[in-house]
Amino acid sequence: ALLSVKEEHEASLRDILQYSLFKTKEELLAEIDAISSSSAKTGTRIIIWNLRRTSTASTEFDFDTDRYNIRIPLEVYEELSDPSQPSNRTTYVPESVFSLRAYCSILYLKPRMQVIVRGQKVKSQLIAKSLAWIRKDHYKPAFLVSFY
């Protein structure tokens, strides 16, 4: 396929090719084709690259423990945590803090789209059903109040 770019978009394309991992128009087009060749024909593809290494030479994300997830290793999580808070390992930390799959499962209050992490569909959770204290807010626009 041929990628033609309007003159007003040339600067944007140059920036993408300069600052992303795609160095040619053909590489960029292959990524766009990967999205449009899926069964849905639409979507967002997130590519994680240029990761830093920790003091133990592992990457800042763990891709190996679970082949269908991306996690923040414990050592990286502890480095990122707030230094003003006491470091207490007995404190419960929700899985959604360090697991991309868990985070995506609760990302939307009313999930209406499919999320796939590392080739496997994420099972959405209705987070409101799992909360200990639920507060319902019944919104009434101010302009409707004057009609009553």
Automatic annotation (TrEMBL):
Domain of life: Eukaryota
Residue ranges constituting the Morc S5 domain according to the UniProt record: 98-143
Regions annotated as coiled coil: none
Annotated Pfam families: Morc6_S5 (PF17942)
InterPro entries found in the cross-reference section: MORC_ATPase, Morc_S5
PANTHER family: MORC FAMILY CW-TYPE ZINC FINGER PROTEIN 3 (PTHR23336:SF17), ZINC FINGER CW-TYPE COILED-COIL DOMAIN PROTEIN 3 (PTHR23336)
UniProt protein name: Morc S5 domain-containing protein
